[in-house]
Specification:
Layout: E1 4-11, E2 17-24, H1 27-36, E3 40-46, H2 61-76, H3 81-91, H4 95-109, H5 114-118, H6 127-139, H7 142-199, H8 206-241, H9 243-255, H10 259-280, H11 285-294, H12 299-313, H13 319-325, H14 330-342, H15 345-403
Antiparallel strand pairs: 1-2, 1-3
Amino acid sequence: MANASFVWEARTREGDTKKGVMEAESIEAVHSKLKLQLLQPVTVKKQGKALSFSMGSGVKQEDIVIFTRLFATMIDAGLPIVQCLDILSTQSENKRFGKILGQIKGGVEGGLTLSDSMRKHPKVFDELFVNLIAAGEVGGILDTILQRLSQYIEKAQKLKRRVKGAMMYPIITLLIAALVVTILLTKVIPVFEKMFKEFGGGALPKPTQIVIDISHMLANYLPYIVAFLIAMSFVLKAVLANPKGRYAFDNLLLKLPVLGNVLRKVAVARFTRTMGTLLSSGVPILDALEIVGKTSGNKVVEEAIMYARSKISEGKDMAGPLMETAMFPPMVVQMIGVGEQTGALDTMLTKIADFYEEEVDVAVASMTSMIEPLMMVFLGGVIGGLVIAMYMPIFEMAGSIKAG
């Protein structure tokens, strides 16, 4: 019989009430397991499937970092896993995360391993996290694995923030520029047009007429333009949901002039950091490559890693297939080859990750320093061009009055 989830409430010998979720074959099995834990069952009922309308897990990476650090400290202090999960679930500031930890605790109490219980929450604990926990359970080094996990997540978040921070400036600047230009074209330009008609003066200068025509078009078709942009966002989402579409999009990103170089360095840093963490934790190389590929965040990188994995499964080393993919720089591949020959591949991967994370810092700073003046020139050109175009008829009128 397949196991089901049961919500239970029981009393301790001291009279305290405890609640939880347990995996078992039947209500009777739950009663038996609770009694083995010296708990007196009060109510046990099958857990219903709740409808969820949430787009995400509602759990931040910061919550997971804090959880892993505290969990590692408690395990190192000798506390049982169930007690650790009980404390962390009740003390979590994120109520949703606390509920999930309570469900994981129920799974462990029901006989599941910690990794199997976590595997039921893929939106919170990804494949990398779960497999490392499984390696820690098998090797008896769960506290060490949890410390490594927290450090890994912190470094990965730091890397992600760097790239996002660099991209936020141009995106916000472009959005503000689009808003300002829209207001000028729909609210300010019509006022000037009305003034020009009242003054008369014949045909307007060509730049001024072009700006007025754009203003008319925007005023007439603004709802359609907005609808088109919304439709395009849904089309882009559908394209990214398709494996081939996502591969083409990721490939395009990597080929962009400035951003592509930064993203390639981010991919190398993420690959080496994740691979080094998995290997140092005792995960077999083929399993590690599969996990790294699935968590790479880029289909082109994933395909390159999975190609290398297939070649390694045939008996080849890692460096050769990685060189064939042309995805990773020759220096990185050579260092990986040295790591394989010396038997210190995990250490070498960690050193490469440290180096490339610094390279990402430099590349992001360089990209930002390049983008800022370009954005200023662009904004000055667009808004300045609009202002000059609208003042040209005024200058002509002033010249005519002076000549008269």
